[in-house]
Amino acid sequence: MKLYISVDMEGITGLVDHTHVDSNKHNYERSRIIMTDEANHVITSAFNAGCKEVVVNDSHSKMNNLLIERLHPETQLITGDVKPFSMVQGLDESFCGAVFVGYHARAALKGVMSHSMIFGFRNIYINDVAVGELGFNAYVAGYYDVPLLMVAGDDYTAFEAEQLIPNVTTAVVKESISRSAAISLTPAKAGQLLSEKTTLALKNRNQVKPLTPPDRPLLRIEFTNYGEAEWANLMPGTEIIPGTTIVQFQAKNILEAYQAMLVMSELAMRTTFC
Question: Which residues bind Zn(2+) 2 per the record (predicted)?
């Protein structure tokens, strides 16, 4: 078995606000250790469950957060930015399944540090299905016929995953009180939970079907203000839906839709407040 693991940061145990996930803030270095150890519980359990190869993609911010020296020695780590496929870089049909660790709920939902890629996105739609990072990444996995076996994060992240993917295993390491507060397990307790859930997810992998994307997906991104939509609309092939802040793009497949989303996010971030 060959397992793919994408590791974000906002859904990691005990991390609740920007001081934990921003590399310029005082809590960040502590958070990197917790994040790395949490990923390592999943990696080690995967090897113990019979995986012969585990590929881990660092998927937060500049994507160089995981401390490679703390990981299981057989881990293959994808690290750094820029990546053509960002949070799902390196994912292809050779994997038996995917696991998302440290994930968070999409922007329009409750949950600890909920958002979708950038704060300029309010909603992302694939045809008529609202998705965040979790759902969009699961669609890319489904393009390669790879099922999403497990998602770890807060309770709202687990709910989002369960609505999209029947029989997915979820590991809830914290329960949201607000967007910047939670009731959290300790890292030791979370590590035990993640180890158990990883073993279960791999055991039940045949019970989960890939989230198959539509053949020619229509990507629609709703921005928080019109200036962001204007910037995103500079990408060829896009159009702003009149009377809205929604920019749409007709993609030939989910991979093109994903890269279009990445380009529009980079353009939209150039918007200034005034």
Answer: 8, 60, 104, 133
